[in-house]
Amino acid sequence: MQKHLKRYRLLGVLVATLVAFNGVTLGTVQAQSPRRISPSAVTMQVYEQLPELALENQYISSDGEIDVDNTLVSRIIRYHLYIRNRPTNLRLDWKLTMADYLGAFEQISPEEYPDYGLRENPMAGDITAVENLSVGMRDHLTNLLYEAFASTPTASTTNLSATDLSATAPLTTSS
Question: Which residues, including other chains, have CB under 8 Å from residue 108's CB and lie 6 or more apart?
Fold first, then answer.
């Protein structure tokens, strides 16, 4: 008879563990769900934090005017969100996007690159601009993009300036 009760006891512990685990998992998923934020607001925030980052907004739109709002960062965000459909609340996905620009992960296709009405596709210039960033600058850009989309509105964890960054991570590599 005791063997029989041990089976039910083990089954009860297993069920309780599964219920507890699912409750924790569901709570975690809900707590980490991405909040809706404007990509243009993130673009402005990134350029405020990294003023030395190239705008790459010299391209002419289909109406013959220079489109000053179509910047490198805005195109990186659109590529990440709309072309690759990657989540915004995971740092690894932002790193994968940077790897795409460096030619180390997925190939960027000129046909699907987000030019949004520009006469010339900015893909080659954007890839060159990202390649010319130091490792520290690319990492800082990745962190800013991740935190802008993933952090809560009241908790900003990265307010590093370029001088703070140079003190914590080398911007250039020496041979």
Answer: 79, 100, 101, 123, 127
